[in-house]
Design brief:
The structure is a single chain. This protein is α/β, with parallel strands linked by helices. The protein has eleven helices and seven strands. Strands 3-2-1-4-5-6-7 form a seven-stranded parallel β-sheet, with helices on both faces. The longest helix has 25 residues, at about 160-185. The structure holds 1,4-dihydronicotinamide adenine dinucleotide. 1,4-dihydronicotinamide adenine dinucleotide binds near residues 14, 95 and 149.
Amino acid sequence: MAYNLLKGKRGIISGALNEESIAWKVALKAHEEGAEIVLTNAPLAMRMGEINKLAETCNAQIIPADATSVEDLENLFSKSTEILGGKIDFVLHSIGMSPNIRKGKNYGDLNYDWFQKTLDISALSFHKMMAVAEKQDAMNEWGSIVALSYIAAQRVFPDYTDMSQAKAVLESIARNYGYRFAKLKNVRVNTISQSPTMTTAGSGVGGFDAFFEYANKMSPLGNASAEDCANYCIMMFSDLTRKVTMQNLMHDGGFSSTGITEDIVEMISPKQ
Ligand code: NAI
């Protein structure tokens, strides 16, 4: 059911790779809620072509941008304001990739060039996006910017390796740019810390199925799905959350506040 929460708003949504992507669901819901959007992803990711289906459904244009390239991001923001016919009200950063995870490197054996790539793609890109938006004065007053994070920023999940540091940097950028953008334009900046979710990026992490199941059993409400996450993003883009900023918002079915659950006890208790 749609509530017209984003009626008249203009947004940029990054990171929709396929139907499983969290950004894909956010784009569908933003469209349903009345927003005009532009989609973006890395030029390489677009070769798969799936994003065209989404663009058609959402009546959106696609602007390729490698999120590590300031030049690409400048083009993204200037074209978006042109296409959408005005300043931007919301931005979703839904971008993450670690070459070390892809290549199965363990934490004691990281390739440092790849580590820097992980940080650049998954965290610094968020700073670059906001710096470009600021310099072009592309954000509307009371706009909202959201990036997606994971609890490995605060706690150890061994297989998440260098992405843990990337998420810690991402959350810190949200706080620091959140302060700056609030003072400049009343724009809010937050991260949503999402449950493990079955997507291309998610399932690339070693032992993901066990990871997913464990989190599900440790969360009194169960894992939050990609669709649940999209609903939360829409609320954050809406006018109902104007004074929420510089936060890392846990969206995890209660996982982060839970010590143990009956489900876990049952799982590891010896059978009688
Ligand atoms: P996904 O694989 O569908 O999305 C990741 C996106 O990042 C892809 O669309 C990919 O093309 C894009 N990307 C990679 N390098 C890029 C670059 N250089 N420039 C522009 N885009 C680039 O997976 P998912 O899960 O939807 O990921 C979205 C966000 O959610 C990521 O930040 C991820 O870390 C975060 N997240 C995911 C969780 C999960 O378990 N799936 C849990 C918590 C957070």
